[in-house]
What does this fold into?
Amino acid sequence: MFFKYFKRILILVIIFFITANINVSAANLKDAFRLYDAKVGPSDLDEAALQSGYVVGITMDDIIGIIIQTALSLLGVIFLGIMIFGGYLWMTGRGNEERVTRAKNLIWAAIVGLIIVVSAYAISYFIISKAGEGVLQKN
It folds into this structure.
């Protein structure tokens, strides 16, 4: 009996949660997301973040860090895809030397590419951290 009406019940539950969420979350969004104003002070979200120990506001360093993190994540996904494709080629090669050799070369190219990306990130992180220390020591 329950499974007969399962679709209808599920749709009603989803509609209920969507409408309940809209009604509740629409209360004071304008006040919560307003920018810092010297007359009024920080917004409610900024105040909560400050009390939690988070730095309020986004800097250029934060933006660059987000871009680098996104790029590295994308490269990790590409590496994983190439490794899976190379493994698939190897497993479906059925002893065909050309296909197995192509799969091995693809896997090695993915590993070498990952090593290059990680080492470039490590070198740039080291240089930027040392440059930052030099700037801090001068002041």
User: Anything to note?
Assistant: The longest helix spans residues 97-138. The CA atoms of residues 46 and 80 lie 38 Å apart.
